[in-house]
């Protein structure tokens, strides 16, 4: 018997992994700040909290979430928009993280692929780094796994993980929501990273061509549908500096799968309903296109964000101040509804 | 045109997701402690750091890592050992985390599957909860994604993320390693979660039957090869309470892919080599079996842990005290080598 079975012959190349790490190094370090402690060879990433805990965060609470980009990854692979999937991955996590008033600190990723091809995968990391820079978030680590028998040729999956910090006295949990308050919407860029199983089903059922330019979209279907998820960190951090959590900002919601209905309901007190007025914000044309191919309007609102990526709830007397503050940040915010006495439901009419 | 396309018809069932969350609730809460702040409906998990920062961790540094279980997941699926894969997932993360002296705080998981089947996936979460209880780690969140077109029927992938804390003055980074120090090995249970592409290649090439009982193993091949990765948190936390970081414990390494060679080298100063004496620790019989089917011994040591799951380096004059402390914890530790003047290499002979 010859001793000829090696790890490399089984499809895994440890040396290729070393090449990969050096390839992505500059993207990773582009996100680093004075908190990141660099220890070459270490088994885990290090983030110095001392200054943060000293300054202003007297009662530190860590906030953390995990998310992927769902089946958007499949369309992203098919259309080679992998950089943007990296932005989506960060967005899905940081937008969740900030709803409670937390400041994002760091991010880690998991990429599993058929093959560890640096040329194919580096753009994902560069997209993640781009999203992290937009969020003031350091990439503290990650894992890239080569699994030829789990993923088909060219396929990969992504998971992201984010940690932030908030002072316990400043956690926004929706418990201050009350009838009479205003609902402010921040626009989405389109579908973001939810509902893609339905999008893909529709593309296949209606036999749509992703590369086709649509005048109503002003771009190709692929460009419209795969536009990266907006990141709301800069705007929300600015609001949290200018307004008081809970007193002025009573709740925030990231509108993901389940749409306005499910995501706004998550932050409402059970003695009020959210009454959202249809047509009080512009619906991106991609949603008209999708709906025109056979999705009921109620299902559209149940699955997609319909043009609202993030919601902020404030007492009515400061709603205009909040909107003006957002406009000054070039954020096209608008008041789209109000809380009324109720039982924790979301009514879109 | 009928409006008949729904999210459910496209393969995703939002209601099923709600059932899933309630199914796994007790596993999740079994890991919770007084630090976890429970906020129903929240977009992210909350972990109160205040007490920890107040007591003893004056210069808090967060430590974080991400990892999966590699292609072990494929054999775990084939042999229906999904609970143990959950333990592996935690082990791969927490064992990395503690090498720098950190205490694990919380864990998040990402599970992506062909189908969100609570019966098939709940055991994974229960395994994760088991691993987290062994590690004193709270499950703070996670994401379960149903992706029928990315994963084949019955397939899934796992990623885990862990966060810990260490006082900056107590970070162990190997910078105190020096010639003359002793290398202490903690036993592995076998292959742990690395080298499975090679294991699977070998099983297929040699046409091995996973269900076959082997007298040398005392169990079936599946039981031996898929045994969950040991979690070293309890032992290492106890050591870090009893001995001084850097002065007494100069380095620690989790032996994963790359074996003793690559993982011990990561924590060595460049002016010393690690001289490890073969046969100074028991090699679990699974490695003999694997090697006997055509893997060179050098490749075995390059890919597998060969029976050593975790390494601790200490000054020689306290090595016996450290070993005795570990024996008192029922940990079968042994001195397997020493550091000698050199250039950062690992020599196994």
Strand content of chain A: 15-25%
Helical run tally of chain A: 12
The helix/strand order of chain A is HEEHEHHEHEEEHEEHHEHEHHEHEE
CATH class of the largest domain in chain A: Alpha Beta
Helix % of chain A is: 25-40%
| Structural class by SSE content of chain A | alpha+beta
The end-to-end span of chain A amounts to 75 Å
Largest interface: A-B, 94 and 94 residues
Number of strands of chain A: 14
Q: Radius of gyration of chain A from the CA trace?
A: 22 Å
Poorly predicted regions of chain A are none
Inertia-based shape of chain A? globular
Q: Please outline the major beta sheet of chain A.
A: 6 strands, mixed
Mean pLDDT of chain A: 93
Main features:
homodimer; 349 residues; alpha+beta; 60s Ribosomal Protein L30, Chain: A; Phosphoribosyl-aminoimidazole Synthetase, Chain A, domain 2; 2 domains; six-stranded mixed sheet; four-stranded mixed sheet; 12 helices; 35% helix; globular
How would you sum up this structure, described in words?
Two copies of one chain form a homodimer. Chain A has 349 residues and is of the alpha+beta class. Chain A folds into two domains: 14-170, 2-Layer Sandwich (60s Ribosomal Protein L30, Chain: A); 181-348, Phosphoribosyl-aminoimidazole Synthetase, Chain A, domain 2 (Alpha-Beta Complex), CATH 3.90.650.10. Chain A has twelve helices and 14 strands. Chain A has helices at 14-29, 50-54, 72-78, 82-98, 118-135, 196-205, 221-225, 233-242, 259-265, 285-291, 297-303, 316-328; strands spanning 36-37, 45-48, 60-68, 103-113, 138-146, 156-167, 182-187, 213-214, 219-220, 251-254, 272-276, 308-314, 334-341, 346-348. The model of chain A has no long low-confidence stretch (mean pLDDT 93). At the A-B interface, β2, β3, β4, β5 and β6 of A face β2, β3, β4, β5 and β6 of B.
């Amino acid at each position: 018997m010859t001793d000829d079975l090696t790890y490399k012959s089984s499809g895994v190349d440890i040396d290729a992994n070393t090449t990969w790490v050096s390839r992505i190094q500059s993207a990773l370090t582009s996100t680093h700040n004075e908190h990141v402690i660099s220890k070459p060879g270490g088994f885990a990433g290090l983030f110095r909290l001392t200054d943060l805990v000293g300054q202003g965060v007297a009662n530190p609470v860590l906030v953390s979430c995990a998310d992927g980009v769902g089946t958007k990854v499949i369309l992203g692979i098919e259309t080679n928009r992998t950089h943007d999937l990296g932005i989506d991955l960060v967005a899905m996590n940081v937008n969740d993280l900030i709803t409670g008033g937390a400041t994002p600190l760091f991010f880690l990723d998991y990429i599993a692929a058929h093959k560890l091809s640096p040329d194919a995968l580096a753009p994902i990391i560069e997209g993640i780094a781009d999203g992290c820079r937009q969020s003031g978030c350091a990439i503290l680590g990650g894992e890239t796994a080569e699994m030829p028998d789990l993923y088909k040729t060219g396929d990969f999956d992504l998971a992201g993980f984010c940690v932030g910090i908030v002072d316990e006295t400043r956690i926004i949990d929706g418990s201050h929501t009350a009838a009479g308050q205003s609902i402010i919407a921040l626009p989405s860029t389109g579908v973001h990273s939810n509902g893609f199983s339905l999008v893909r089903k529709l593309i296949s059922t209606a036999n749509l061509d992703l590369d086709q330019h649509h005048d109503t979209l002003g771009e190709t279907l692929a460009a419209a549908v795969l536009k990266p998820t907006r990141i709301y960190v800069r705007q929300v951090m600015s609001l949290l500096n200018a307004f008081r959590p809970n007193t002025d900002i009573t709740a925030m919601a990231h509108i993901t799968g389940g749409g306005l209905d499910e995501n706004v309901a998550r932050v409402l007190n059970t003695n009020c309903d959210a009454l959202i007025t249809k047509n009080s914000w512009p619906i991106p044309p991609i949603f008209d296109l999708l709906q025109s191919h056979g999705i009921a309007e109620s299902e559209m609102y149940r699955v997609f964000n319909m043009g609202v990526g993030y919601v902020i709830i404030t007492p009515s007397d400061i709603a205009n101040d909040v909107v003006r503050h957002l406009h000054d940040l070039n954020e096209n915010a608008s008041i789209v509804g109000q809380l009324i006495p109720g039982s924790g439901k979301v009514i879109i009419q």
